[in-house]
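Our collaborator T.R. sent over the components below with a one-line note: 'Predict the complex.' Nothing else. No constraints on interfaces, no templates requested, no preferences about which chain binds where. So this is a plain run: every listed entity goes in together, and whatever single assembly comes back becomes the starting point for the next discussion.
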Amino acid sequence: MAAAAIVRGPSQQVSRIWRFAKFSNRQSVGIRAYSALMSPPSKAVVYEHHGAPDSVTRVIERLPEEIKENDLCVKMLASPINPSDINRIEGVYPIRPQVPAVGGYEGVGEVYIVGSAVRDFAPGDRVILSPPSSGTWQTFVVKEQSVWHKISKDTPIEYAATIIVNPLSALRMLEDFVSLNSGDSIVQNGATSTVGQCIVQLAQLRGIHSINIIRDRPGSDEAKETLKKLGAAEVFTESQLNLKNVKSLLDGIPEPAVGFNCVGGDSASLVLKFLRHGGTMVTYGGMSKKPVSVSTSSFIFKDLSLRGFWLQKWLGSDKATECRRMIDYLLSLVLEGKLKYEMEMTSFDDFHIALDKALGKLGSQPKQVIRF
Amino acid sequence: MAAAAIVRGPSQQVSRIWRFAKFSNRQSVGIRAYSALMSPPSKAVVYEHHGAPDSVTRVIERLPEEIKENDLCVKMLASPINPSDINRIEGVYPIRPQVPAVGGYEGVGEVYIVGSAVRDFAPGDRVILSPPSSGTWQTFVVKEQSVWHKISKDTPIEYAATIIVNPLSALRMLEDFVSLNSGDSIVQNGATSTVGQCIVQLAQLRGIHSINIIRDRPGSDEAKETLKKLGAAEVFTESQLNLKNVKSLLDGIPEPAVGFNCVGGDSASLVLKFLRHGGTMVTYGGMSKKPVSVSTSSFIFKDLSLRGFWLQKWLGSDKATECRRMIDYLLSLVLEGKLKYEMEMTSFDDFHIALDKALGKLGSQPKQVIRF
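Returned assembly:
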């Protein structure tokens, strides 16, 4: 299959431009190396310009791509739809690939073809992108061998596909801001998010009590139960915290020195209310799209610090080895049954259904993972 | 003059209670030591309960007080009315003296009588309270010798009286949060405040450019001129900053790594707008009585940190020696003409006029300093 063909989407615009770009590319390949290794054609989710993900993304077939001597061609097995993937397509993310672009940022696959100079990988190896990078929503990904990290084939693919963006964020946030010891506590909002679920479990593994805040919504009782089973010390809905002294609810748990906020607005204020004198709130998301509001006295008299966390900064090049050690640790927890989180696997054929779910158009849904 | 007498104020309530308390005290003194050293009676601003300072404060005469062997009795010369003094009387300050209490927190005086065991001070010595403590709004203050710090008699009393709460805050804020070098810049709002004026000068002495934000009000042009004369690199009114890219105004000055906020609300947002990636905003006041509001992306993508500063924490007991070194440094700058700020001296007889000015009832006014 050598020509691009639209698989889904009303407009022909994307594929025409895409085809032109790939065609030029193929021409130059042809001139440079007659016997170049080529990938199979790849089915991919692409967007040509930024905007609402459900209207700007199309699933197309891409032309075969050259596999250079140090490249791996990986047959993708699974890749998640993370909130940051959506922000990248919307164009509101500070770092975004040049359009036209293939969506997705992390994922797992199986080595399919290795470049001529590759020695450390062989077809059949299970690999993830580490550090992650753009373009994982496609059936075949060709990238230089150094960005691939070999993992055990025993790892369930949905965990292998999702182990960096959320679990690694949870791990780093627990480690990087405040020195926490067994017996200490943390507080977080958005506790049912994937990061939230990971924080609960990683905290518990360290003997740290987690105080969790979730939204009031149908099913919040079940969500409480789920979090408690994962190891949450306390779970409150926001309306339960509509009282002056939230700390009276702590029941022997020490006041937290650190809090994690992925919601903003009033929910962030609840995190601040729980923090002990001198505590730190780390913001890593803003699901409510509302700013964080802080009283002057919180800063002066309660000595609170407010910080931000962005995994991207952590994934910087000089940390590659350290990141892989942490990823292996997280994957080992998965294999030991000590780290789990809710996910839903959806076939690539139903990508746009998964996307709608990830966009919240179908109510509260677990993390969507595309299976190729 | 052995009995308490009301000097000003319509209600007799305060002085009656006060008289009773002092009477009990005198009885016990009489039993313990027949030849006790006693201070002269002291004229003092007292409040019996917390509330609006202009209605709860009364000027009364206090009975003579025992001077114990390690005490100094100091004839006060001057003491300022700081915003925190007002907050203490209002009862909104986290640390407040037990009522009934004498107002005021810092000041300068002359040693009048020394306790029998005192060797390092003699009558006539010029002293300030270091660390500062409650009760400086009175003509004679009796406190243990260790809280007094001897200073040069050449120091103008209005500067000696005010050198800790505001100038020391300015110095610590410049030193404690971000490592600043010559050529760097800082940004602040409330720049016409005493702390603000000190920051401008202390920054300039270190070769640091100060970007200053002031309110739009009649006289803001003069305020700009005053700040520029003190060494401000840039002064903007808030309305001048009503544009998307405030950094385009910086004209060669590097983006600031640290900002100081004593206003809150929109004015704090202007400080945040100027900060460079990874910058820190330090809140030390909230003159607008509005909270600080911060976008999620400021935390995550701009990596801003928000902190608070409270001098009280700095004045903690183990820092006493260090504080006095810094105070001597600041006083030396005053003597060299390198540190100045606007003040108005008011006679103690007109205390309530000065208080009204400090409360903002008479428009924008310089720092009020009571001369005894």
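Summary for T.R.: Residues 269 and 295 of chain A are 10 Å apart (CA to CA).
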